[in-house]
Specification:
Length: 197
């Protein structure tokens, strides 16, 4: 099964619409599935990272989510939105991992930082991003997950409600309250510095 997302393998399918790719995948064309992986791997990784706050775990579960989706592709209904179905699989895997962590705690080692970015221009931006992420990570999961899904994965309130099995009104309230808490935390800790050029 194809899960690497190698663009050269899937380039034939790059211009295909999602439903055609899914049909081709159902017919055993693994390169078509590769194009699906290319299109969604960053979004699934972002979702998993938002839930788990660990790059290694997020990478593992991103991989697992695509495997699980491929294995269960015959259960997917083509008239439904694929991203919601895929994100549901990923979020369920994340919830299971969080549940496992609760009963099997381990000492976390720090994640290595990404390199290769122009250090002069990126240091302040990366520091700011890290402090915002830290503030987001300190939010309770009930507020963090809806915020990540809304602003990092650009899902609608309805899609988030379906993913988290909560009423849409609850999602709107949690996003609003989460933003208020996040803003207060950022202002209190000085995460955002108003830069003037």
């Amino acid at each position: 099964m194809y899960i690497q997302g190698e663009e050269d393998e899937a380039s034939v399918y790059r211009g295909w619409d999602e439903v055609s790719l899914l049909r081709a995948s159902l017919n055993g064309e693994v390169e078509a599935w590769g194009e699906i992986v290319v299109r969604y791997k960053q979004a699934v990784f972002g979702l998993c990272l938002g839930f788990l706050r660990s790059r290694a775990d997020a990478e593992d579960l991103t991989h697992d989510a695509f495997i699980r989706a491929y294995e269960n592709l015959r259960r997917y209904h083509l008239e439904k939105k694929f991203s919601t179905w895929l994100f549901t699989i990923a979020s369920n895997l994340c919830r299971n991992r969080l549940r496992y962590r609760r009963y099997h705690p381990v000492v976390a080692s720090p994640d290595p930082t990404d390199g290769g970015i122009d250090p002069a221009a990126a240091v302040a931006r990366e520091d700011r991003r890290a402090r915002i992420k830290e503030a987001l990570d300190q939010l309770p999961s009930g507020y963090r997950a809806p915020l990540v899904l809304r602003y990092y994965n650009e899902l609608s309130y309805r899609e988030i409600a379906e993913l988290l099995s909560l009423p849409e009104g609850t999602i709107k309230t949690r996003i609003h309250r989460g933003k208020v808490i996040l803003k207060e935390k950022i202002e209190r800790d000085g995460v955002i510095h108003h830069e003037r050029g």
